[in-house]
Design a protein that fits this description.
By secondary structure, the protein is an alpha+beta fold. It folds into 2 domains: 118 residues, Zincin-like (2-Layer Sandwich), CATH 3.30.2010; 104 residues, no CATH class. The longest helix has 21 residues. It is globular and about 65 Å long. The protein starts with a strand and ends with a helix. About 5% of the residues have low confidence. InterPro entries: ArdC_N, MPTase-PolyVal. One of its GO terms (molecular function) is single-stranded DNA binding.
């Protein structure tokens, strides 16, 4: 990772579905850490869709998850106030204390299912071929990094402080062009002249994983404001 930080070959980052993963039955977009979990699953498994269902929802849609398929974990976090706590707060006049909880669910990509009926929502249409996102363009311009387009790989090279990404038309969906740009520009924030993170960790190390998580966070937030 010290020589160049990047997202590797074409197949790992040119394929994706709609801008955000969503539930194929309800149409509701997933949020928070679930976006990163499901994006990662699409990249790792090469799924052609960003639409997901639970095992039960696949049955509700008239189909089923294919035998042998493995799902992806998503989480739901919230708070609740037990009845006993409500009673205590009412008796004491104090504010009731909410208890945080976290639930885990397993979801499956619609490509892992069969026999689904029309009640499953279709994937959103791809973004227009040359759509631009002004706020992302402003971030790129304001970064101060030598930003180049060309080739078939995306990477940040700390030694030269340059970011290179393939041309915009090389991407199946234009939002993925901006995700890639922001991913590499987030790596660039670690340059010695900026936040001076250690960018020398090799692939497979904890330091490499930490830096990739930073870059994923950097690419996600601006894209969420757009969608």
């Amino acid at each position: 990772m010290g020589a160049a930080l990047g997202q590797g070959g074409r197949g790992r980052w040119l394929r994706s579905g709609p801008a955000l993963p969503r539930n194929a039955l309800t149409g509701r977009n997933y949020s928070g850490i679930n976006i990163l979990l499901l994006w990662g699953e699409v990249i790792a498994k090469g799924h052609p869709s960003q639409s997901w269902l639970t095992f039960r929802q696949a049955r509700q849609a008239g189909g089923a998850v294919r035998k042998g398929e493995h799902g992806c974990m998503v989480v739901y976090a919230d708070r609740f106030i037990p009845e006993t706590e409500k009673a205590r707060a009412q008796d004491s006049g104090e504010a009731a204390r909410a208890i945080p909880f976290l639930k885990r669910f397993t979801v499956f990509n619609v490509a892992q299912c069969e026999g689904l009926e029309n009640k499953v929502l279709p994937d959103p249409a791809p973004l227009p071929e040359r759509e631009t996102i002004p706020i992302a363009e402003e971030v790129i311009a304001a970064s101060g990094v030598d930003f180049r387009m060309g080739g078939d790989k995306a990477y940040y090279m700390p030694s030269l402080d340059i970011v290179q990404v393939p041309p915009q038309l090389a991407f199946f969906e234009q939002i993925n062009f901006y995700r890639t740009c922001l991913h590499e520009l987030t790596h660039a924030t670690g340059h010695v002249s900026r936040l001076a993170r250690d960018l020398s960790h090799g692939f497979g190390t904890a330091g490499y994983a930490r830096e990739e998580l930073i870059a994923l966070s950097g690419q996600s937030a601006p894209c969420l404001t757009h969608t």
